[in-house]
Amino acid sequence: MNMQEFTIAASGEGPYGIAAGPDGALWCTLVHAGAVCRVTVEGTVTRFPATGAAVITPGPDDALWFTRYGDGHIGRITLDGAVSAFAVPPAYGIATGPDGALWFTALQDGAVGRLGTDGSVTTFPLLVPGSMPSMITAGSDGALWCTLNQADAVARITTEGAVTLFPLPTAGAAPVGITLGTDGDVWFVEIGAGQVGRITPDGKVTEYPLADRSARPHAIVADPAGGCWFTEWAGNRIGHVTADGVVTAHALPTPASEPHGLTIGPDGAVWAALEIGALARLG
Hints:
The protein is mainly β and 283 residues long.
């Protein structure tokens, strides 16, 4: 596969979260610069001020929604760059739920929250103090699933707020990224253990070790052809796991590029945000 890099920001501005927008472009946060960038598949960049933007996701309303890590707001940006914000507990992960609301993780509060597009906010505690809920995704079962980084667990939350915890087999797994696979299972990465995991809707967990257990996998996204793609933050690679658990990796061209979020672009390629100020395209 061919790997390309597109510079979109200065090296200290920190491309972090990335999502495919409804307009056929990529939308990327600059976590250290307070901005969101719209990037075409040809690499043309348009930049919009957006305080504290971290993790970003397509919303239910043809806009993009993003967490403003640490400052108690979730932001909304329209396709023409108009930004608004809603007060919530300090949030990190965010995803659109099956009920048409935005669901987020309250990292420090040990809770998951629901933000309606009308600004209404409800939070649900995850019952484990200090669990650090990280990323969140909608499952195939009509519920939300999130990783509990400091509890070595995955949680399932219904849209009514009922919580079920699933401990992981590996101590120190420290899961972060999570996504719904094309097989209907939820897939996640264990940044502490150097593994990819999957969990069935009824809670059965399988783990797949990486060749480099110190690679610190961070984010994960479903491969439309089956399996998942993920970033190896410390390994400077983009990895792939098949539905059968076979793991391969693709080295990034620039050393120490610090890959974080990734998505499948409108062109069918894999796009990853690199903290060095660039996006990587693998396709």
